[in-house]
Design a protein that fits this description.
The complex is a heterodimer. Chain A is an alpha+beta fold. In chain A, 50% of the residues lie in helices and 12% in strands. Chain A is built from 18 helices and nine strands. In chain A, the strands form two sheets. In chain A, strands 1, 2, 3, 6, 7, 8 and 9 form a seven-stranded mixed sheet that branches. Chain A has a two-stranded antiparallel ribbon with strand order 4-5. Chain A is globular. Helix content of chain B is 74%, strand content 0%. Chain B has helices spanning 2-40, 58-64, 67-98, 105-112, 114-117, 120-130, 137-144, 159-185, 188-196, 201-230, 233-238, 250-259, 264-289. The longest helix of chain B has 39 residues, at 2-40. In chain B, 32% of the residues are buried. The chains are: A alpha+beta, B mainly alpha. Chain A binds chain B through residues 81, 84-85, 87-88, 106, 109-111, 201-204, 252-258, 262, 266, 271, 396-397, 399-400, 403, 406-407, 410-411, 413-414, 416-417, 433, 436, and chain B through 45-49, 68, 132-134, 149, 151-156, 159, 239-246, 256, 258-263. Chain A: Its main location: periplasm. Chain A: Residues 1-26 form the signal peptide. Chain A: InterPro entries: Bact_solute-bd_prot1 (IPR050490), SBP (IPR006059).
């Protein structure tokens, strides 16, 4: 008994000694230029081409800083609940999380994430603030302080089939009425063979994300200036009526259950003449390995019906990397997020992945970008310039508001309620949520 | 005297084995239930900075007046009743059919169990593709006989039944399995005797076979009912509760409240309420619908 005890003890001591030696060597090798070598970061990111590019380049980061990264990649819908549970428990489980900028305000109010300006001045080796598209920095800034580095971003625009428009003599729509007229012409002249317009109609964020274009373009908004729900307005009702009508009359069968993928595939397969969706769809339209409409698609800004909109009718969505307040290694975390969003890494990502959502001006101006995404670059930049960062509400209760609004959109699209009634219901639920 | 002592000791020994386990399980169950009730009486939301307050029965009052929750409850009940009855009836029919002797019986029996062992995610995705309004197989088959495409998952009057079909497809084999194993234990001479007496096949099934299957079917129905209360995976994958809330069950609503709205306390209230309602319903079912032997 004693003998085994002492034997295992001496093994322990030997191992500890060996470990200490290794660590000392490592310290000597690292020196001063890698102050956080040996740190191990836990990072939660969203499944996306940008994330794939970051993952592929991780060895470069470890080589440059000596920091190891444990990367966890989950679908967008699962990422928020995951980080919320860890944040609210203050667990420090994740050092870095990737989140849409619509959550930033809520995270800051709840003290879940830290401001980055101080870290940026202390460790600036990867960081160049001037290289970020300015419109992507704004939604990550609260009270003048930067809380997230933009990793990828996108806007929305109208995609239409140039060949069909020419064949049927249709001009590019500038209002929602013109969209409906164009959809009608396509349906009639193709004898219903080609769908006039396809959009996402699935209940929840999918449908709301697209309908929001109609809402803002009609002069409506989600919230009033004093933070109450603004969905019981005539503008909102008209927006929902027009959205549902064009889809029910000239849209695809099954639109009420269509999300991003279904909608994208339908358009890529040449079965629809128009779609209104995120700019990232352009990358899929122009990719010959997945698309039958390469070179046939025109890109235009999202239509506007009113002369005085309260905000732009194209979206501005930015996903940023944030550092958790509960993280014990915020400096190392900063090095990671500034490296992942650096000019060099973003330019590199264009070669490894279909990443049209770069946030770096230098990457957007690179030859690789022009070669791949030149077909829609101009329209994308125009959409970004007029992109509305409040497109989807950014208050802490945003999810619940989107959820309630999604039910209204779905009901009208399915024909089970009138736009005015459905929106009145959503309005009451939203106001209840906002005061809760 | 001695024998009594032995008996006493051995019983004590047995107790030493199971008591800690029972005690631990009870402790865990009560601790969790206590925590659940504590959550229901507070206003914990991950999206607010106001801090946690005791709110009494406010969450329960909110649920009682929440039309969305009440509609979801009604939909859950409808789904349980339809799914359970279809699965049990179809299951017996298939089991009776398979009880005949025919070539390839073993193969058919193996094939029929496939849906049950399939992961719910795969089953849900398969049915979602089959029901796809644009390019799904079902609409394609219908088009070959001249039927216009049906918007299976996008029409609020149809979507719940589309999910129901998938659930029936996946879980009827379970009833078949239970019924078949019982059918094999039924003495063949009883059936033969009835046949000798000139009873028709329908009468044999009704008066001889079914009464003997009663216990099995009661258990199968109970298990299927409990499972359909918990049904979540097929709904989540096929419709996510849409369109127009037409497939949102109480379970799915609780999930949305918890993981979209982050309203933890209210979500727990919904879950607890569903648990209570289910328990009462199952107790009633047990009391009135079950034969004595099963209880």
């Amino acid at each position: 008994m004693t003998r085994t005890g002492s034997a295992s003890r001496s093994i322990c001591i030997a191992m500890a000694a060996a470990f200490a030696t290794v660590t000392t060597w490592a310290d000597i090798a690292v020196g001063q230029d890698k102050p956080f070598a040996g740190a191990r970061l836990s990072v939660l990111m969203v499944g996306h081409p940008t994330t794939d590019a970051v993952r592929k380049a991780l060895p470069d980061f470890t080589a440059a800083t000596g920091i190891d990264v444990d990367l966890e990649v989950v679908p967008e819908a699962d990422s928020v609940p995951k980080m919320m549970l860890e944040f609210s428990a203050g667990s420090g489980r994740y050092d870095v999380v990737e989140a849409s900028s619509i959550h930033v305000k809520g995270f800051v109010d709840a003290d879940y994430i830290v401001p980055l300006d101080d870290l940026a001045t202390r460790y600036g080796e990867f960081y160049d603030k001037a290289d970020f598209v300015p419109g992507y920095l704004t939604p990550n800034t609260v009270d003048g302080k930067l809380y997230g580095l933009p990793l990828f971003g996108e806007s929305s625009f109208l995609m239409y089939r140039k060949d069909l428009f020419e064949q049927y003599g249709i001009a590019v729509p500038k209002t929602f009425d013109e969209i409906e007229a164009a959809a009608k012409t396509v349906k009639e002249k193709s004898n219903g063979r080609i769908v006039g317009i396809t959009m996402r109609g699935q209940q929840g964020i999918q449908g709301v994300y697209i309908w929001a274009s109609y809402l803002w373009g009609m002069g409506g908004s989600f919230l009033t200036d004093d933070g109450k729900s603004a969905l019981d307005t005539p503008e909102a009702a008209t927006a929902l009526d027009k959205f549902a009508h064009v889809l029910r009359e000239y849209g695809p069968v099954g639109v009420a259950n269509m999300g991003w993928e279904e909608n994208r595939l339908l358009f890529q397969q040449g079965k629809a003449a128009m779609t209104l969706d995120a700019t990232v769809n352009g990358a899929f339209n122009e990719d010959p390995s997945v698309s039958t409409v390469v070179g046939k698609v025109g890109y235009a800004p999202v239509p506007v019906q009113t002369d005085s909109p309260k905000g732009g009718s194209s979206s501005l969505a930015v996903f940023g990397l944030n550092i958790a307040s509960a993280s014990q290694q915020q400096e190392a975390a900063w090095l990671f997020i500034s490296w992942a969003t650096s000019k060099k890494q973003q330019i590199n990502s264009l070669d490894t992945d279909p990443n049209s959502g770069v946030t770096s001006v230098a990457a957007m101006n690179s030859p690789a970008f022009d070669k791949r995404y030149g077909a829609f670059k101009k329209a994308m930049l125009a959409s970004l310039a007029g992109g509305n960062p409040q497109y989807i509400p950014t208050v802490p209760r945003a999810n619940e508001i989107v959820n309630n609004t999604g039910i209204a959109v779905s009901k009208v699209l399915a024909g089970t309620a009138s736009a005015a009634d459905a929106l009145k219901e959503a309005n009451e639920l939203n106001n209840a949520a906002l005061t809760r | 005297m001695k024998r009594h002592g032995m008996h006493h000791i051995s019983r004590n020994h047995a107790r030493m084995f199971y008591q800690p386990v029972v005690g631990f399980l009870a402790l865990a169950a009560f601790a969790l239930l206590g925590y659940a009730i504590w959550l229901c009486l507070h206003n914990i939301s991950l999206m607010t900075t106001k801090g946690t307050q005791f709110v009494g029965f406010q969450n329960f009052v909110r649920l009682a007046t929440d039309w969305r929750g009440l509609q979801a409850l009604w939909r859950t009940v409808l789904f349980i009743v339809l799914a359970t009855s279809f699965e049990v009836i179809l299951g017996i029919a298939i089991a009776l059919f398979l009880d005949q002797e025919f070539r390839g019986k073993k193969f058919v029996r193996a094939v029929i169990l496939v849906p049950m062992i399939m992961t719910p995610v795969i089953a849900g995705l398969t049915w979602r593709f089959l029901f796809n309004a644009q390019s799904g197989m079902i609409n394609y088959w219908l088009s070959t006989i001249g039927v216009a495409p049906v918007d299976w998952l996008g029409n609020p009057n149809v979507a719940l039944y589309a999910v129901l079909v998938a659930d029936i497809w996946q879980w009827t084999p379970f009833v078949v399995l239970l019924a078949m194993s019982t059918l094999e234990t039924i003495p063949k001479d009883l059936v033969e005797a009835a046949r000798m007496d000139g009873a028709s096949e329908v009468r044999i099934i009704w008066h001889v076979i079914l009464p003997m299957l009663r216990r099995t079917l009661a258990v199968a129905a109970l298990i299927r009912a409990i499972d359909s209360v918990k049904a979540f995976d097929l709904f989540y994958i096929m419709t996510k509760g849409g369109p127009a809330l037409s497939t949102e069950t109480q379970n799915l609503y609780g999930y949305t409240v918890a993981f979209t709205n982050f309203d933890i306390s209210y979500a727990m209230t919904i879950a607890l309420f569903l648990t209570i309602v289910t328990n009462i319903a199952l107790m009633l079912l047990n009391r009135f619908a079950m034969p004595k032997g099963v209880r």
